[in-house]
Amino acid sequence: DTAVSQTPKYLVTQMGNDKSIKCEQNLGHDTMYWYKQDSKKFLKIMFSYNNKELIINETVPNRFSPKSPDKAHLNLHINSLELGDSAVYFCASSQDLGRVYGYTFGSGTRLTVV
Amino acid sequence: QQQVKQSPQSLIVQKGGISIINCAYENTAFDYFPWYQQFPGKGPALLIAIRPDVSEKKEGRFTISFNKSAKQFSLHIMDSQPGDSATYFCAASDPNDYKLSFGAGTTVTVRA
What we know:
The complex is a heterodimer of chains A (114) and B (112). Chain A is mainly beta. Chain A has strands at residues 4-7, 10-13, 19-25, 31-37, 43-50, 53-57, 64-70, 73-78, 87-94, 104-105, 109-113. In chain A, the strands form two sheets. In chain A, strands 2, 4, 5, 6, 9, 10 and 11 form a seven-stranded mixed beta sheet that branches. Chain A has a four-stranded antiparallel beta sheet with strand order 1-3-8-7, with no helix packed on it. By secondary structure, chain B is an all-beta fold. In chain B, 34% of the residues are buried. In chain B, strands 2, 4, 5, 9, 10 and 11 form a six-stranded mixed beta sheet that branches. In chain B, strands 1-3-8-7-6 form a five-stranded antiparallel beta sheet, with no helix packed on it.
């Protein structure tokens, strides 16, 4: 199946822990993204990578560190988790900045910090 | 700062009715306006998109209307079906943007 896949789907953890979310796309896209969806469903860009290079870092706390080992993978590591980090995190990818065929989103990782 | 303002936050429509969602923007550099549909537990998926050189685009029961001078665009869902129940997001980008700026979303519920 061609897709954007992210793991895990659910993540429940305690405050102060460090966790990672992994994302892989097999669509051959050049650009990958992390979006955060809060409890009101608002979608906010966090990071954008093009061919493994960081393009956008949208005022995200430096506890969040993305890593792109190759253009098919974009992982998100979060240090010292806080209650406010609870949200659904979506990975997405696109070709041509998504202006022809749109973004392809993964199914999301629901992070709950307790 | 939200670059695309979307309304209403939610709406309920009877099966067969018309759902209308409105969006407005300020950034005149925006030249690509997609709509995304999101079902519970899934990621958003591209539904339909428009560029400002046309005033309307139709795909099946979904129509985007675009008013460049007013910097507004809207999604019409004709003959709404229960399967259309989802959250709809308008979005916008400029030619050099490595991101989409999304509206706040509208949850549409279609009652049978």
